[in-house]
Amino acid sequence: MNQKRRIIIDCDPGHDDAVAIILAARNPKLELLGITTVNGNQTLEKVTRNALNVCQYLDIDVPVCKGLAGPIVRAAVPAEERIHGDTGLNGPVFGPLTKELDPRHAVDFIIETVMDSSEPVTLVPTGPLSNIGMAIRKEPRILNNIDEIVLMGGAYQHGNVTPAAEFNIYADAEAAHVVFSCGRPIVMMGLDLTRQALCYPEIVDRMAKIDTKAGKLFVDLMRFFCMTQKKVFGWEGGPLHDSTTIAYLLDPTCIEVKAMHTEIDITGGPSQGRTNCDFFNLTDKVKNTKVAVKLDAEKFWDIVEDSLKLYD
Ligand code: BDR
Ligand code: CA
């Protein structure tokens, strides 16, 4: 029997998405079935190229499939160039790209892979939820074989693109609504949690001692990411948002969660894209989401360090 947890990462790399891929790909506890890409931090073309580059550089031999070039209802929000640069992954320099894209559309890849899997699959979205929302609508039977959706997105406190909303949810709120109301267990790594995963300069120095390709890539990524985070938000360390999803899968004790009813604001007003999390259970509605509230930062950075050491 396969003991590894089967996962698909649906992402928009993105510095923190790239680190999530690094944490997942070599870990013996996980079987990375594939990587799907979605418009978000940069255009679909750019984030897909970034995913391929990361896989090629680290010899990660999994299918990479391109997905939706924009949200399912509204116009695309501008790329997060202030944070991730004009390529979406500024910092590292990659060689000529030879790894080929898998010809399947991300939505079809997700459907086929989940339907064909002999064991339940965990979806790990770290970008806007367009592909996942579309896959659920196209083939709702996939829900029967999804054990959990562990995603980065939302906030029960403050947003980062509007006072109310976080980027991934805001970028495709209608898709997020489909996902959060799908009936499968959701684990939400929102900004409340990911702002505790701050990659301070001393963390970068610690990882710089790891003499592997993954260690080098991490450092190249984080030097750029921390610089833009300081410029935009004034923080000394950049929050490694997306990587918390994989850390949770590897060791759930590193993240404390609280079950809450969560619904997405899709009313088009000033709180469009907000994850309304019923922290105090005021509505008594079904607690459909485990919302992450507290990070054990020491354990988290140990997980990152151990993961970087798993590469050559
Ligand atoms: C999310 O938006 C992107 O900039 C990051 O990759 C992360 O997924 C944080 O709001
Ligand atoms: Ca992301």
Account of the 3D structure:
- This protein has 312 residues and is an alpha/beta fold.
- The chain has one domain (5-308): Ribonucleoside hydrolase-like (Inosine-uridine Nucleoside N-ribohydrolase, Chain A, Alpha-Beta Complex).
- It has helices at 15-25, 44-57, 81-84, 106-116, 130-138, 167-171, 173-180, 191-194, 201-208, 213-233, 243-250, 297-308; strands at residues 5-11, 30-37, 64-66, 121-125, 146-152, 186-189, 198-199, 238-239, 255-260, 262-264, 275-277, 289-295.
- The strands form three sheets. Strands 3-2-1-4-5-6-12-9 form an eight-stranded mixed sheet, sandwiched between helices. A two-stranded antiparallel sheet has the order 7-8. A two-stranded antiparallel sheet has the order 10-11.
- α4 crosses α5.
- The chain is globular and about 50 Å long.
- It starts with a strand and ends with a helix.
- The model has no long low-confidence stretch (mean pLDDT 96).
- Bound molecules: beta-D-ribofuranose and calcium ion.
As laid out across the biggest beta sheet, the strand order is 3-2-1-4-5-6-12-9
Characterize the largest beta sheet: strand count, sense, and whether it forms a barrel.
8 strands, mixed
Low-confidence stretches: none
As a percent range, the share of strand residues is: 15-25%
Shape descriptor reads: globular
By DSSP (H or I, 4+ residues per run), the number of helices equals 12
Fraction of residues in helices?
A: 25-40%
Radius of gyration: 18 Å
> What pattern of helices and strands is seen along the backbone?
EHEHEHHEHEHHEHEHHEHEEEEH
Mean pLDDT figure: 96
Q: Give the distinct bound molecules.
A: beta-D-ribofuranose, calcium ion
User: How many structural domains does the protein architecture include?
Assistant: 1
